[in-house]
Amino acid sequence: MQNANAIDGSKIRTGESNAIDCIQAKDHSTGRTEIASCLRVAEVAQVRVAASESSIQTAYLSVNDKVELDVKYADELGYTFSEALGVAPVKIETNYPDVLSIVMPRDVNGTYGTHQRFVLQARSHGTALVRLHINHPSRKSDFIMVSVGARMYPRDVVIHSGQHLNFTIIGDRMDARGPGQWLSTNEKVMHVNQITGEAHARGEGIAEVIFKGPNLKLRTTVNVLKVNQIVVDAPAEILTNAAAPPDGYKFSVKLSDSAGHSTESSVNQINAPFDCKVEPSFVGFVEPWSDRAGKKSYCVFHPYSPAQLLPVKSNPKDGILHISVCANLKEDSMVTGSAHALFVKGFYIKEPGMLNLTPSCNHSIITIGGNTARC
C-alpha cells in the first residue's frame, strides 16, 4: 500500500479521501506476489433509509403503529459504508408531525442525532413525507412517504384471466371505516363481489377495483393478462404407489402470457384457474390445488394403492409405467400443458398381522399382490 493508507496489524488505517490503494499478498510456496484487494477511501456525503437491508420509499401504517428503520451512510456516489456507525449527526424531519412522529433513541451519553436507528409512529390518518439528511455541501437527502390509515390489499395486481382472488381492507379497524361496497370500473375485465370483495378476472385488459365507504374511498389497478401457455413440471422423485406421500405428488403449474409474464407468485389467488387429469386414468386421480401461502399452483397426483390396482388389466414392463399429468385452462381448454413421470407400481402382503415362527416351524408362505412383474 502507498502512503495514503497503512496496514496496522489486522486493521487498515485510512488516509486521505478519494485515495485508492491496493493490497499485495505474497504466496510463500511459490514466491509470487499478486494484488489481493483494492481499497477506495471516501467520505460520508449522504444518508439513506433502509429496512430489512433494502431501501424503501413508501410505508403503510395503521394509527398508533410503529416502524423501526435504519440509517445507512453513503458516499457522494451512493455507495453505502458497512462500518460507518454514527459518524455524522442525522437530521430527520416530517412535513406533518400531527400525522407522524419521529422518535430518535438516546445515545449512551444522553444525546440525540448519531444513532443508526429511528422509529416512526403513526398518530392520525393522512400522508406524511419524511426527510433524512446530514450537514454536507452536497445537500443530498433521502425521503420516505408514509401513509397512515386504511389501504387496499393486494395493490397493483397483475393476474391472468380465469383467476380469482380476494380484495380486503387492512390498516384500520372495521368500526373506524364503517361499511362499504366494492366496485369494478370494467366488469368485462374484472368482476368484483360488492359485499365480499371476491374478484374474478374475466378478460384481458386493465380495470380499477374501488372500495367506497362512508369516510374513505380506496382504489387500485388490476392488469389482467391472457394466458397463452401452461407449463407443468414433474416432481424430481420417482412416483410410486408403495408408501406414497399422504398429500400426493405435486406437479407445479405455471401460467404465462405471450410475453412470458408468469403468475407463479404475483397474487394470493383463492382457486386454481385450471383443471387437471392423469393418463392412464386407472393409476390414480389428480386435482388442482393452489398453495395460498406460497402463492403457487399444482396438479396433485394421488396414486391408487396396489390393492386398488389389482383388478386392473394392464401390461406394464417390469412393473414400470410412464404417466402423464395434464393441466388445461378452464377459460380456454385449448391452452394446455403436461409433464411425464416414471411410475413404479408397488405390491402388498395379503396376510395381515405378524408371522409366528418357531424352531419346529420356521417357514411360512406369504401371498403378495400387486400389478408388478417383479417383487
From TrEMBL:
| Top-level lineage group | Eukaryota
> What region holds the Nuclear pore complex protein GP210 Ig-like domain?
225-344
Name the residues that span the membrane. none
Signal peptide range equals none
**One Pfam family this chain carries?**
Ig_GP210_15th
- The name under which this protein is listed is Nuclear pore complex protein GP210 Ig-like domain-containing protein
Organism of origin is: Triticum turgidum subsp. durum
